[in-house]
Write a structure and sequence with these properties.
two-stranded antiparallel sheet; 3 helices; binds zinc ion; mainly alpha; single chain
Length: 98
């Protein structure tokens, strides 16, 4: 009946009423979104003017693959740095060592 009467996140389609809130488009229209997409919209550089724009804007941010690759690279670099540091530390003195 009154389950999801227009109450879904316009970006991801979430229907859980506990997650749903609303966000205002730059044109003044208020659309239903889930909490995380409301937050993402608030954090966006510029508010979307239409639902389509909102989807495009927030849809791009939903893909964390790039970040993952970066942090992998960083983790690898850190690992190398630490293992190298450790090796040289074994032979001689290190800063902070007594
Ligand atoms: Zn959503």
């Amino acid at each position: 009946m009154s389950k999801t009467d227009g109450k879904t996140c316009v970006v991801c389609g979430a229907v859980d009423a506990r997650l749903l809130t609303a966000t205002r488009l730059s044109g003044g229209a208020v659309v239903t979104v889930c909490g995380s997409h409301e937050l993402a919209h608030l954090r966006a550089d510029a508010p979307a003017a239409t639902v389509e724009e909102l989807r495009a804007l927030l849809g791009e941010r939903r893909v964390p693959l790039e970040r993952r690759g970066v942090s992998d690279e960083l983790a690898g670099a850190l690992h190398l740095a630490f293992s190298g540091d450790r090796r040289s530390g074994q032979g001689g003195r290190r800063l902070g060592g007594a």
